[in-house]
Amino acid sequence: MIEKIGINAGKVWTVLDEEGRQKVKDVKKTTKLTDKDLYAAIGWLGREGKITLEEIEKELYISLS
Question: What architecture is the 2-64 domain classified under in CATH?
Answer without folding.
Answer: Orthogonal Bundle (1.10)
